[in-house]
Design a protein that fits this description.
The protein has 287 residues and is mainly beta. Helices cover 7% and strands 28% of the residues. The protein has two helices and 23 strands. A seven-stranded parallel sheet has the order 10-12-14-16-18-20-22, with no helix packed on it. Strands 1, 2, 3, 5, 6 and 8 form a six-stranded mixed sheet that branches. The chain has a five-stranded parallel sheet with strand order 4-7-9-11-13, with no helix packed on it.
Amino acid sequence: MKRGMLLAGICLACMFQTMKGLNFGGVEYTVNPDGRTVTVGDNKNYSGSADLVISGDFSTDGRSYTVTAISDDAFRDNTQITSVSIAKTITSIGRMAFRACPSLKSVTMEKGVGSIGFAAFYQCSSLASVTIPGSVASIDSLAFQVCSSLKSVTIEEGVTSIGAYAFNSCSSLTSITIPGSVTTIERSAFNSCTSLTSVIMKEGVTSIAYQVFYDNPSLVSVTIPNSVRSIGDLAFAECPKLKDVYLNWDDPAGRTVADNPFIDGTKPKDCKIHIPKGSEEKYGWKS
């Protein structure tokens, strides 16, 4: 009995030991229960290099560790960081991990990063560009909302969904191309991007939700692929400069289109909807 209790105590001590925190390169980590992997922990008081590098692995005190995740709120409200590089071993970037980091200008994610959590980079007001690798399955809601300096967004083939309000109020964004691997664009994903002039959706996108591109006063051109089966209410409403909608549907039958996808209070003037050549009879009108 005593021996059993002793063994249990030793195992419990080992478990607590593996759950301990450690610091490497000025970054706080939590050792996961397996003792071989770590999660980037609470770093809200991080004061190391402004160019933050979260590497895929490191060794300290004679042991090697693989970094697998960035925890929720990890660097939230940090004013020190100007750039961050995230290794391919990171399976997830937690909720609000870099929320409101006002000095953060660039983010580099290696192909292998798995997901970007809710509001992960929300209100990073200096962030100018980001490339989201195809290994990222989903961009969660509010992920880059109110990144007012964000001018360039590259979404690589492989990303499957863009969450609600993901790029809402990115007022410097001028154009966006959405790859065909993205099947769903959720509500208000690109709402109030006041500098956005061009939207291209590649073949594969299946639905455009409520108010996805609502209130984009600079938007002049939209390309909608044949794969889109539904367009939600007010998807392109309050876009008064919208001139050309390239609707690449070979046949409009079986599509679901809201009663008012392009009109709310302000109707675009002289907007033309272009359809594929040879499909005029199916639409009952000419392009």
